[in-house]
């Protein structure tokens, strides 16, 4: 299971027992979108090769 914790300047992630952080700039570059317009589903897809997406995607701007 992957855990995402969103903050104004990046996302703290736990993936397969490994903790790391994706900074805002990296997420913007990977998605070609403004950080606050990226969804939680898009971040999860950056981390996991084939994530099980459930529920409606939420914008980071709405989460933080």
Strands, total number: 3
Please describe the biggest sheet, giving its number of strands, its sense, and whether it closes into a barrel: 3 strands, antiparallel
CA distance, first residue to last residue: 22 Å
Tell me the overall shape.
globular
H/E element order: EEEHHH
Number of helices: 3
Global mean pLDDT: 95
The helix/strand class is alpha+beta
Q: What is the count of distinct domains? A: 1
Strand content: 25-35%
Low-confidence stretches: none
Rg value = 11 Å
Helix content estimate: 25-40%
| Strand ordering within the main sheet | 1-2-3
Pfam families: DUF5800
Topology of helices and strands:
Blueprint: E1 2-7, E2 10-15, E3 18-23, H1 24-31, H2 40-47, H3 60-63
Antiparallel strand pairs: 1-2, 2-3
Keywords:
28% strand; 3-stranded antiparallel beta sheet; 3 strands; 64 residues; DUF5800; 3 helices; alpha+beta
């Amino acid at each position: 299971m992957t855990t995402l914790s969103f903050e104004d300047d990046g996302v703290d992630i736990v993936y397969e027992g490994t903790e790391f952080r994706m900074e805002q700039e990296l997420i913007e570059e990977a998605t070609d979108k403004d950080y606050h317009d990226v969804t939680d589903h898009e971040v999860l897809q950056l981390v996991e090769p084939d994530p099980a997406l459930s529920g409606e995607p939420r914008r980071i701007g709405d989460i933080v």
